[in-house]
Amino acid sequence: MAMRFLLVACSLVAIASAGDFYQDFDVTWGDDRAKILDNGQLLTLSLDKASGSGFQSKNQYLFGKIDMQIKLVPGNSAGTVTAYYLSSQGPTHDEIDFEFLGNLSGDPYTLHTNVFTQGKGNREMQFKLWFDPTEDFHTYSILWNPRHVIFMVDGTPIRDFKNLESRGIAFPNSQRMRIYSSLWNADDWATRGGLVKTDWSKAPFTASYRNFKADTCVPSSATSECASNSVPSDGGWWNQELDSMGQQRMKWVQKNYMIYNYCGDLKRFPQGLPPEGSLRGCSLSALQSKAAVDVQYLLFDDTILSLPVERMNGM
């Protein structure tokens, strides 16, 4: 699946960033637990018993293609969460989440994804990865345009949240969002529903970041919008969607590695499944996933999982 890039002009500021953490991000909490190293090419977050740490982007974005290479906490990471996400602010915020839930040594991480619109989430999909995300850096990407939010891992799409506003389903297309990331303790729920606690004898826990890239629309004022008439005819990421190969790759991931899909959770939604499930907005049903067999799902309090204010302040 080829991704093309362009710069958006008109009344907007077009941003194409490439890897300088001093230029693109601010450390927001954790004191010296968050470090920018190697002349701005590397950023590390650490967690100890006293505090975690986090950073946020200097810019706010409204659509774009964003890549970040991350190497997750190695070894016994049970109880820890590494969060990497886009979010606006306030009770009606929009949000696009990657969250990596740690585990005991030798057990795989859980990759938790969610999409919030107008303050409402409850759109969780969870995956196991097909590699060890602690041995090396891997690229986690968000493609966000007016028609799709596509989550990708090393260029492979794992989830496509489609714009179904015409059918009454909200879509994040009007609020500018910053990039946030944090490493924090969540041993009350993160690993096996809170049964496995953080082993502080293994602290400090460290996650590393490099090769940030963003080809994005950055409104030049609070009232500016990213409009289709400001985009050249070739479209680029503005018109990007999954081609047939991309759809097949996503189906492969969801069939073999997806362990939870909110669209198929009859126990959670006894009054009726979310409408996007019947409108092809959820992709493969969790009931079709091989990885979901014999897995006991633990539904977490959505306010614990995803409120950016708590994560920013070292929840």
TrEMBL record:
BP terms from Gene Ontology: cell wall biogenesis; cell wall organization; xyloglucan metabolic process
Leader peptide range in chain numbering: 1-18
PTM characteristics: Contains at least one intrachain disulfide bond essential for its enzymatic activity.
Glycosylation sites: 103
Chain coiled-coil ranges: none
EC number: 2.4.1.207
EC category name: transferase
Residues in GH16 domain copies: 15-209
Family: Belongs to the glycosyl hydrolase 16 family.
Protein name: Xyloglucan endotransglucosylase/hydrolase
Species of origin: Musa troglodytarum (fe'i banana)
Lineage: Eukaryota, Viridiplantae, Streptophyta, Embryophyta, Tracheophyta
